Amino acid sequence: MTPTRREFVRHAVATGAAVHLLGPGAVAAEAWPSRPTARPGRQDRPLFVDGLSFMPSDLTAIPGSGLDAFILDVSSVAQIQTDDGSIRYYRSFEACAQSMTAMRRALREDIPQAFLATKGTEIRSAAETGQTAVFFQMQGCEPLGEEVSRLDLFYELGLRVQQLTHHNDNPFAGGALEEVQSGLTELGRDGVMHMNELGILPDVSHGSDPTALDVCRVSSGPVILSHGAARAIVPNARCAPDEVIRAVAETGGVMGIFMMSFWLTRDPVPEIHHLIQQLRHIADVGGMDAVCIANDYPVSGEAQLAELGNDNEAGVEPYLPWWQDQGRRGIPGFEVDPEHVVIPELNDVRRMFTIHDALGDAGFNSDEVEKIMGGNWIRVLTEVLG
Predict the structure, then answer these.
(1) pLDDT of 149 over the 50 cut
(2) Helices (DSSP H) in the chain: which residue ranges?
(3) pTM exceeding 0.85
């Protein structure tokens, strides 16, 4: 494993304007109350950490997941149709500030089995008390507008992972699903350096190849690709080439393989061995210290598919308009419609237990299983966040 290139300085930034910016009733960075002591002890297994997930509609699913920690997307997204008719997504500053504030309140008042985490060291303490540590992430820099200083506000609200783009270009960086690929802008370079100063993990998921490589060059600390898959297995613009996987690993960062099966395999029937194949590829290219698990669905799974009994033939239909739109724009990898959305055995709240067992069955040793299931995430989150 190639070590982190250099250590970086983190400092706390106070922003007393939080309530003013967010409006009446907003929750600023008040002292977090001590969390209740939950069920003592835990099963004799590695710690489970998910690199990107969403809150389930049924909050009781959280303890059932076995997750000791997960990175939570708290950005608020709107679907928009552009002048050329293509479907894109947008996250405004106001909507994301409100959604982050609301999730802070929910974790404090409504979700006793989970808590807002701001340091990697809190994961092990969560495991000891039967709790789940939740780290805030935003998918894309659109909420920042062209003001890097907004990172300070979001940091005070709990943000610890920041994705540069979500599919498309923005003032900070180039997205993966664009006809012409571009990388970090000058604003984006300033943004990455400020993330380093604050102690926010730069995330290159959904970024173009030039964006990912630029971020890895600019960042003074680990860079992550929180949720993705390998382009060597599925040739699609949303998947990462080996050059990007290797660059992320060389920063000391990690890559999480997610549950969206149309980016895991082009075989007509998705199975657990396809996920294992992806994990092995990341380990072969970036090293065992670089490979992790992610989700990209709610903690309890993709709800529509679950309601359909994980019938992929029916469940893929809502995804096709967006997919076909990318194909019409000429984005590589979208020429053929997908046949599935999930690996049925993994579209379940207990997915991490199933993956854990599958790794052992596939021949990974106990140290490797521990790293993949959560150890690598814990290392990176602790190094960057403390």
Answers:
(1) yes
(2) 18-22, 61-65, 93-109, 122-129, 150-156, 186-198, 209-218, 242-250, 272-286, 303-307, 312-315, 320-328, 351-361, 366-370, 376-385
(3) yes
